[in-house]
């Protein structure tokens, strides 16, 4: 491959041509840099062996990379929701230690040897499975995003939280290993009048939701692993339901029972909560699918631009509960000009996608937005468009375009412009 | 979708038809099971909140899932290699905390603010980059396996280590985020006589290897993230070279310098080590690519079959430094009969692949083997075939078929039959 050709390809991809040195200092200049001229401790000393951490941890220099809560957001003495630090991540996999969580009765500490999954209701043969039983069914591996219906919920009425971790961090994206739910339901035999299922959690909140049988028999998984290892306790260890593309609350954690019925149950978490109150006082029902959405993660309020001007990498994530993300547009000037972003990494159904836009920053203020398109042709709406249809009474299902203002110093903040 | 049709599809996929109940106990029988009839502590008590673990950890019930060392394998006072617990994992992503590591001077504890990457040698303009400079280049996201050349090295002369963690655990598979090395080399400008690069690590061992310029300009990455978050210290934090499909030792960790030269350096780790001594006393040179290989992870010596007979899930992983894995064959009887395994999960270039074979175990002893085919048409060899060509003097590049013997109780052990 000819290096020059590749470089030209890169320039076409978004970096302004003729901008000269992309980054770095010539070695002659660097001769005065003690990081180059002096030996560092790690060059000279034998480091730790491998025995200290049979289960490894991040570097102590990465202590700032963590899930965070918003103190005023939950009334409990302990927080019941935290947020993924999207601005510190790249690619599309959320590491398990940083995957946000939301619970309604605390993190259940379940003994897998005593955990059971019961299938009952409108089935030919009610069944009870141990974890070992579940491991005897055929398994599948799929990468899916899980987004809380209330993600970006505080932003319905205006720019509120200053950081994409808080505005958009109720999402994670991992590879699940699990048994297709249809295999388990088929084992019990769903009766012809069995039209709905109700998964139930083993935690103190006894979370329940109603899911139509079509979805249950389509792509739902009874999952026991995430990113290769056992589910984390806060993600439902040892068993959770995976409901691809649908709101996170339905992905019942610590899954202990699935009842088959002939109609939806209309339980608490699908009536007084997780429904969208409209302007006319009525609530939308069955708003399960998470619409196409995106956010710029860098730069963002927690992640300023750290140089004065020149080559700058803008990046973010996009997803849709209805398919893949073939395209994301980015604007630097609040929507006057849109540029097609570069998608990178695997494009998987109902998974997070990563986009980049490399540009030559002139050091003047920016109004950044991203706008995702999904594989059905749907385009992410502005806040104004969304409010026009839905009003501002809901805290759920805000998939509107997010705006960051970046000042001359590279500092970003959450603003609203439409 | 008709449940019955799906079930029949499943049966065709490997499970013997007519075997009746796949797993589970009828609810009537389970009525005597206290795990069903009694309330469990986690059903009744508010669990922990989210604040306790801003960076999450596995359940305490998973404490056995960890990297392990082999005491006699390294002479250091502290071990210099540990192994991925493949038998505890599923899917294709290795979680960062469980990714094996091998080092030659301990785990360097590098301060990213003081870390530099220098490009020198046969370039137009020697350059020095800070971590912030690196972050201004365009990035890519790719899932790759990294396998140590010595993986399965103890097995050349016979069945030695009792568990796939030890025989095959010097491999991991993660999503990297990094800058294509060609962008960085192009910035410095490789001279026309620049035909090789020598990456160098910042740890006390100062690891160096020679890599031809064609590979450097093709798919190598200067990576700073794995599975979304910063590289782990033992994986080269803050910067490592990614050399897709090639032996792990070349993926220099704590990457601080890349020299461009006109010939290979023939340094220590590519002459006295990481070369294959043949029967005639000569050593193979430039054995970079990791050949196609596979192993059954369950059942295996550390992971017995836990039921007496009936439906059983066999699973394992396969990979090739030359492409993808379209097919894996499995035998239950030491090679008399081969069955095509079911591949599942994303099939990505130079990445680990997951395979399954579901079968109805009659409770008699098994001789398990897997045999991978890669996208070039190459087929994984038997140990006899490999020894015929390479002899038994090397500890590197053993990609032969592995055999596990499983007795009537489901206990597996490492044996050799060919």
TrEMBL record, chains A, B:
GO molecular function, a single term: heme binding
Transmembrane spans: none
Signal sequence region: 1-30
Record-linked SUPFAM superfamilies: E set domains, Oxidoreductase molybdopterin-binding domain
Domain Moybdenum cofactor oxidoreductase dimerisation: 285-403
Residue ranges of domain Oxidoreductase molybdopterin-binding in the record: 104-265
Swiss-Prot/TrEMBL keywords: Metal-binding, Molybdenum, Oxidoreductase, Signal
Origin superkingdom: Bacteria
Any GO BP annotation: sulfur compound metabolic process
Cofactor names: Mo-molybdopterin
UniProt-listed NCBIfam families: sulfite_DH_soxC
Protein name as catalogued: Sulfane dehydrogenase subunit SoxC
């Amino acid at each position: 491959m000819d290096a020059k050709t590749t470089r030209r390809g890169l320039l076409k991809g978004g970096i302004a041509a003729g901008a000269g040195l992309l980054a770095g200092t010539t070695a002659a200049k660097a001769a005065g840099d003690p990081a180059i001229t002096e030996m560092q401790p790690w060059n000279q000393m034998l480091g730790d062996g491998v025995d200290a951490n049979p289960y490894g941890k991040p570097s102590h220099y990465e202590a700032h990379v963590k899930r965070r809560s918003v103190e005023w957001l939950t009334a409990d003495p302990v927080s019941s929701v935290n947020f993924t630090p999207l601005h510190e991540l790249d690619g599309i996999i959320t590491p398990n230690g940083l995957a946000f969580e939301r619970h309604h009765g605390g993190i259940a500490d379940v003994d897998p040897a005593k955990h059971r999954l019961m299938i009952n209701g409108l089935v030919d043969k009610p069944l009870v499975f141990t974890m070992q039983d579940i491991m005897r069914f055929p398994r599948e591996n799929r990468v899916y995003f899980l987004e809380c219906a209330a993600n970006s919920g505080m932003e319905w009425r205006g720019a509120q939280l200053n950081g994409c971790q808080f505005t958009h961090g109720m999402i994670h994206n991992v590879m699940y290993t699990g048994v297709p739910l249809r295999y388990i339901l088929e084992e019990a035999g769903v009766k012809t009048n069995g039209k709905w299922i109700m998964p139930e959690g083993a935690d103190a909140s006894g979370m329940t939701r109603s899911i139509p049988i079509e979805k249950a028999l389509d792509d739902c998984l009874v999952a026991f692993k995430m990113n290769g290892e056992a589910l984390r306790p806060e993600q439902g260890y040892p068993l959770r339901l995976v409901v691809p593309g649908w709101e996170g609350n339905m992905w019942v954690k610590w899954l202990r029972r699935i009842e088959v019925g002939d109609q939806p149950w209309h339980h608490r978490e699908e009536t007084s909560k997780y429904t969208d109150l409209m302007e006319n006082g009525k609530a939308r029902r069955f708003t399960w699918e998470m619409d196409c959405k995106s956010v710029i993660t860098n730069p963002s309020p927690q992640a300023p631009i750290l140089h004065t001007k020149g080559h700058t990498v803008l990046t973010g994530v996009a997803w849709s509960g209805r398919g893949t993300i073939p395209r994301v547009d980015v604007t630097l000037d609040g929507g006057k000009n849109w540029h097609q972003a570069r998608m990178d990494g695997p494009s998987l159904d109902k998974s997070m996608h990563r986009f980049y836009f490399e540009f030559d920053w002139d050091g003047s203020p920016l109004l950044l937005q991203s706008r995702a398109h999904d594989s059905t042709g749907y385009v992410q709406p502005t806040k104004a468009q969304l409010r026009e249809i839905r009003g501002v009474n809901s805290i759920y299902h805000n998939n509107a375009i997010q705006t960051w203002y970046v000042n001359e110093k590279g500092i970003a903040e959450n603003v609203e412009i439409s």
